[in-house]
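Re: the 103-residue chain
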Amino acid sequence: MICPELENRLRSMGLTSRYQGYACLVQAVLLIRADPAMLDMPAKLLYPRLARLTGLSAGGVDRAIRTAIQVCCRHTHPQRPGEALPTVRQFLAALAEGSGGSL
């Protein structure tokens, strides 16, 4: 385990390591904790770094993270009609700060 606290949290939200987004989220949170500015422009700063680390394309990283967010949200609180999923930035910020407030 790279970061047991984070990985346990993701598993409690229904996300397992079978999803590519699992590794992307773990690495993303570690990068954001080291440099919070990465969260300012995820597509330009964060996704290319994650692509190099995971062997995916930047577009693949985006898809994997969005799928992971859907899995987590579907598991933790089923979506009501008209309710939007959190954005990638919102979800990563909440994971990086370690609170479950906005998730």
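Residues 4-97 form a domain with the Arc Repressor Mutant, subunit A fold (CATH 1.10.10.10).
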